[in-house]
Structures
1.
Amino acid sequence: MALTGRAGGPPLAAPGSPALVVERALERVAAAATGRAPDLPGVSLLGERAAFTGFTRNAPWSCGGRFRAVPARDGSVGLSLARPDDIALIPALVERDDCADPWAALAAWARELPARVADERIALLGLPGGALDSPATRPPVLRSPGGLRTRRTERPRVIDFSALWAGPLCTHLLTRTGAEVIKIESRTRPDGARTGPTGFYDLLHHGQHSVAVDFDDPADRDRLARLVAGADLVVEASRPRALRRLGLDAEALVAAGVSWLSITARGRGSDRVGFGDDIAACAGLHATAGDTPVPCGDAIADPLTGAVAAAEAAEVLLDERARLIDISMHDLAAESASGPVPAHTVSLRAGQWWVECEAGAFPVARPAPRPAPGSAPPSGAHPLESLL
């Protein structure tokens, strides 16, 4: 709530129960951990990035200022413009050359169209966004059984191809349970989160190995394939064809006994892309300030997915068979958003916002950072050959 609403205005509650989904996912991670009880965070992880960045309520924009929703003829559409390439596509989206203010151009374009038509064009151009309140189209998690696992040790080995937040949160939680995590980055395009708050990156990646690979080098690709073939689990957050180009076939690896966890915007069968704010809002996980839909929290689909992915990963690492786990962030957010906002009131008392509901009265807590126990390794700190 501290991150939802207008700057200076009252904090707003989210629909459904995203915090409960995270709480139950963390309970599953703890239950699947072997040995001593792991040191896991609580549901406050939903706001951890904002604690490091200083983000706060910023409606109608997202906390980070890169996403907002605009009215369509019969609903709303939302878009994230976080990358220069996305901004460059706005003239093609709205079919106008004069787009000095991309948001003004987007708003003028959207209000003339049904939300469904705008959504289809956003998808066609591969932009992160779409129509708000788009329904779920499949279960949030699909699981396909594979072959018998060939590597079962007390300390499982996890290969992490993901970046930014959802996937790294998953592998961070696995690191806390004792897994050996090897983060794979391109030598020319490292994880974009490295340019963000250092404390947040350190928190998610401390205690892991870091390998930098030249994906155009056949020798590096061969070594990478051998590393993956000897792993317990692969975590990735790209469209399937991206890793197939490197000679990594998820289905074949799962059949051979390596589990594979895929995090995508709308599932492995979809080419839709997205970030945490637009995915959540398009799935219905948004609040309303006046007549304006506003994002819930800070990119909430990312930590929501990361926690659920960690639960799925921790459980598959106990199984004797490998599994292909296909997580759709959109459908998970849609399931988490189902249900009304519980009856409550919000009031300001001596500079502190309070929320009162059936369970009692509670202060609206500001995001608080967990201190990282140490620094994350630099990109490429661990030679690939040393881990084979």
Note: The domain at 1-388 is CATH 3.40.50.10540 (Rossmann fold).
2.
Amino acid sequence: MEQRIVIIGAGHAGVQLAASLREAGHRGPLSLISQETELPYQRPPLSKDYVAADAASEPLALRPESFYAEHHIDVLAGATVDSIDRAAGFVTLSTGAQLAYDRLVIATGARNRPLVCEGSELPGVYGLRTLDDARALQRRLAEARRVVVIGAGFIGLEFAAAARNRGLEVTVLEYAPRPLGRAASEPLSSWFETEHRSSGINLRCNEGLEHIEAHDGHLQVISTTGHGYEADLVVYGIGVLPNTELAAEAGLSCQNGILVDALLRTSDERIYALGDCANFPLAESSERVRLESVQNANDQARALALTLTGQPAEYRELPWFWSVQGKHRLQIAGLSAPADEAVLLGDPATGKFSIALFRGGVLAAVESVNRPADHISARKILSGGTPVTMSMLEAAASLKELARSAPIPA
């Protein structure tokens, strides 16, 4: 309880861990190192709410400024960690200062996968990850008429919908055959493809980016089909890369993230990692994953706080996600796979439905569109520990009814 704990990273995972450590009774020195100078803020709104025409000028803070002082959390803003000395137990900051630790937590998150093509560095080409990105886009959107979005994942489609709601002409280029290909089932991505097109978005699948040119004060985006799209603004969302360089330089095991065990412990027993940068074992599975979600960051932080205060807690929470695209709210419980068998629940024509996904005859995930009650029921069912078959779902008639009989997770 008196140990010195240093947290590198002040995103959702780092801030939640600091808060949960105090809640769990940690009384020792607690430092939170933030690369940004801003008060730690919520990131999901940046790709939708914050770029809306009537967006608030300031982001939503994860905690009020007073919280950190009241809980004796030392926030080192505008600082980065240059190196970790594992043997001596200290980190060296970009200022040259050294900060000792008994336990070190790496919550460095992830960064945008860079756009690598001719013209990617032209003015008017943006990624969207930080508050500075969102502010720059907010300024450009006030004057833009035409936007080209590269990538039809969550970030790309969220931004595209927000831009379209502002009345802009929006084209989305996606090299894959369908949008949301990494995150959603084929029936769901097909439905969103139709919805975005019906809203006026020019969604182009099987068409990637070749290069970008500058012409007479605007941009010309040349696709892999050779077609050119004029744009005042280009926004790309083509995935992220985990920030593992610091951990790797310190000799920690890394592979698609920092490798951790079920206690979120790295290959050094005094160092832990969590959030977007951590590659962890799924509960009751031999599979390893690295998840990019607020739920994962927050729940890992709560589990790790218990471990660091002498109450070892393996991370076993069910993954779940959400995305707001225009007027539609998508919520996903569990992790789907391309070969899953899809069962439709409800009528997609109403804009309110769910898709139950079965793997090997057992329910593995549920995707819900504008049906929050289904999502809550699905999370309870999938967390209950009892395998649910297709016949069990059919007999129950609805997810809500099935959830009533599902075991409550311990």
Note: The domain at 5-111+241-308 is CATH 3.50.50.60 (FAD/NAD(P)-binding domain).
